[in-house]
Give the backbone structure.
Amino acid sequence: MKEIKGTGVALVTPFNQDGSVDYSGLERVVRNVIDSGVDFLVVFGTTAETPTLNDDEKQKILSFVKNLNAERLPIMVGMSGNNTALLIEQIRNFDFTGIDALLSASPYYNKPSQEGIYRHFMAVAEASPVPVMLYNVPGRTGSNMLPETVVRLARDNKNIMGIKEASGNMAQVSKILRDKPDGFELYSGEDNLAVATIALGGKGIISVAANAFPKPFSKMINYALEGDAVSASALQLELFEIIELLFAEGNPVGVKTALSIEGICNQWVRLPLVPGTDCLREKMQKIIAQKFA
């Protein structure tokens, strides 16, 4: 497995206005982030609107990204579910050729206990032929994977490589980093907490903002990993306002609005999401023109 550290980008899935996948837009997104210095690619995360993609689209998109990447950067693929048996079957039937790791979110909607979350991920790790990164995002799943559960999983299965921690709770981040075993890494899932997380010992981030602002974001993360807190913090504060806007009307609505302003891909999303409002677009245009043009 290629080393996974630094700036990972949770790739958007560009669409045409008729709802079809915009492969020209996807090519521009992928080439831009690679050329701008990101460290690894994440396909089929939340930002990709994965629940709205059918199996045929997923297969074509993954092949397209792998071909564009040409083995330059590590690729992580997202596979999650709240039916453990079905998810295990999907993992076992999936072609992991050219894939370096699996990102899997805690089961959503069911609200399992911590023991249920533990058993779910132990089953996922046993089934996966590649290392597994846990994904804790309680704002979307409806349940929080506690630090004690994360550390227990890390100690009990060596195929669990790390966690994307997106609770926004820095106390929780601190507990995981304090108690985790060697070899298990924590990656921020919050763009505006990336520098703080790395300062505590985090390995990097899986970012939404890096779709639209890969150069300054990668530079910021590199500074943080190198221990240059002053430079990293300055960039984090410079990016703060635009990152807040990226999530003001939901993800990936905001980042697709920014990408459309930059001329990289269209703003279109699939229902139940709707495109960003004119008000959001106007605010973003002003900041992008001032700071990122």
